[in-house]
Design a protein that fits this description.
- It is a single chain.
- With about 475 residues, the chain is of the alpha/beta class.
- It is built from 13 helices and 18 strands.
- It folds into two domains: about 140 residues, Immunoglobulins (Immunoglobulin-like, Sandwich), CATH 2.60.40.10; about 290 residues, TIM Barrel (Alpha-Beta Barrel).
- The strands form three sheets. Strands 2-10-9-8-7-6-5-4-3 form a nine-stranded parallel beta sheet. Strands 1, 13, 14, 16, 17 and 18 form a six-stranded antiparallel beta sheet that branches.
- Helix 3 packs across helix 5, helix 5 runs parallel beside helix 6 and helix 6 packs across helix 7.
- It is globular and about 80 Å long.
Length: about 475
């Protein structure tokens, strides 16, 4: 009897413990996860300021003729060229490497050392390099290119390892070494078969992070074997198809862009070519030279086509007559009201991110989580073609302690004219109570440099200052209660 009574009492006690625990554990969880924030946002608006961002904008051309030892100094003007570009404030540079001195031979060690030095110095200057190998600067490629196509392929094999050593600095490799000015026309070696073979060899031997470029949509079709933009385009995966872009050194120069588009009906061919670029160049860069003052580059016509072609870079020298014409146009309305058309186009080359909203809020004070959301809009002509890192950073205003919260967003997918919502969560229970500063950071994955937004917010080494919040939680309440 005593045993039964004992076990009965134990069972009752155990049941009480279970019931108490069933309420106490959740209550404790709720209590210790209590956190309350009050977010104060910095006021902000869109700005028309010039943004110094990588992989877009104006570029200037600097050429170097590789030479055997004792045949002049190919690097004589390197320092002055770098100084010129630094003063101009450009981020891109087109480096042309003339191989004509070696048309009948392999490159020697001197030539490869010269190439390495050129790329080293431009990379150290903080430039993203558009690189073009060629045999001609004067429109006489048939007289200066190698007699043997195999010799051209050999030059590709020799230069590729040097280029790869500078993959962090070389953004685009233009052309296939052949043609007048390296522009893939007027060559004895540019049959469709040869064009495909050399482009595939360049892709095979060069680092997959480097974009490649051919001169016309027709040449893109020759290299890829495709006659239209493919469904399921393999963007950014390092394949030849994902790397192959376009460069147009006859941009807006005539109805055919000086031979860029072909057909019996040139107006229809032009529309077809631009429509193709409208699809392809969402995921690969596009740029070149604006040439010859004509109706196709009148401001309104130029603006419409540059948007559709997703152009991100243009030659700063060509064509000054066209740029003067654009400068005479005054923008009416919007944040760019009163600025000139040339400035407007320059500020829209490539990507231009505007933050439209940001918020930090709680769905409950008892789940220990604050949720951050930010909407970006890309008002530029093109997407960024390089990976950027995005993160939220909070800093304790009193102690300076900082915590980073990565934001899973690939801004290469933020296409021209589209918006993207960035989101992350902030765990609050382990934070000390007090005031926290909030920053949004967008940086170039390759070097950590800040990507600028088109907003009038303060840019700090930690990113853009968005605001602050006051945190109250168990720790802060206990500190107030007990000191």
């Amino acid at each position: 009897m005593k045993a039964k009574k004992f076990f009965r009492s134990f069972a009752v006690l155990f049941s009480v413990v279970i019931i108490v625990a069933a309420f106490a554990v959740p209550a404790a969880y709720i209590y210790f996860n209590f956190a309350e924030i009050s977010y104060s946002q910095q006021p902000f608006s869109e700005t028309a300021d010039e943004l110094d961002n990588p992989y877009q904008g104006l570029y200037f051309i600097h050429g170097y003729r590789l030479r055997p030892e004792g045949d002049g100094d190919p690097l004589a003007e390197l320092e002055s060229a770098i100084r010129h570009d630094s003063e101009a404030g450009t981020r891109l540079v087109l480096v042309e490497i003339n191989l004509a001195a070696y048309a009948d031979s392999d490159l020697d060690d001197d030539a490869l050392e010269q190439l390495d030095e050129i790329l080293t110095r431009w990379t150290e200057a903080g430039k993203q390099i558009i690189l073009r190998f060629l045999y001609d600067w004067d429109g006489n490629n048939l007289e200066t290119e190698p007699d043997s196509f195999e010799q051209v392929l050999r030059h590709v094999e020799q230069t590729a390892p040097v280029v790869n050593r500078h993959a962090d600095g070389v953004y685009i490799l233009q052309g296939v070494y052949l043609g007048d000015y390296g522009e893939m026309h007027h060559s004895a070696h540019l049959s469709k078969e040869n064009t495909k073979e050399i482009a595939e060899k360049i892709a095979e031997l060069t680092d997959s992070s480097i974009y490649l470029a051919v001169r016309t949509p027709g040449q893109w079709e020759t290299v890829t074997g495709l006659d239209e933009y493919p469904e399921g385009f393999p963007a950014f995966d390092g394949s030849l198809l994902s790397r192959l872009s376009l460069f147009n050194d006859g941009m807006l120069g005539s109805v055919s862009d000086l031979g860029t588009y072909f057909g019996n009906d040139l107006a229809a061919a032009r529309e077809e070519g631009i429509a193709f670029q409208e699809m392809l160049c969402r995921s690969v860069p596009n740029g070149g030279e604006i040439v010859i003052d004509n109706p196709y580059n009148d401001f309104n016509n130029a603006l419409a086509d540059l948007k559709r072609m997703h152009v991100s870079y243009i030659n700063g020298d060509y064509d000054q007559n066209v740029y003067k014409k654009w400068s005479e146009t005054v923008i009416q309305g919007g944040v760019f009201n009163g600025t000139d058309g040339y400035y407007y186009i320059r500020q829209h080359l490539g990507y231009r991110f505007v933050m439209r909203s940001n918020s930090l809020w709680q769905s409950s004070r008892y789940d220990g989580v604050a949720r951050f959301s930010c909407e970006l809009e890309n008002v530029g002509f093109a997407s960024p073609m390089k990976k950027f890192d995005v993160k939220l950073l909070i800093e304790n205003a009193e102690t300076g302690a900082r915590i980073e919260f990565p934001i899973n967003a690939d801004l290469r997918n933020l296409k021209s004219g589209e918006k993207m919502t960035l989101q992350t969560s902030v765990s609050l229970p382990d934070l000390e109570g007090g005031e926290y500063l909030v920053y949004l950071s967008v940086t170039d994955s390759s070097d950590g440099s800040q990507i600028r937004l088109a907003n009038d917010l303060e840019l700090t080494p930690d990113g853009y200052s968005l605001g602050s919040f006051e945190l109250q939680n168990v720790r802060s309440r206990a500190k107030k209660a007990f000191g």
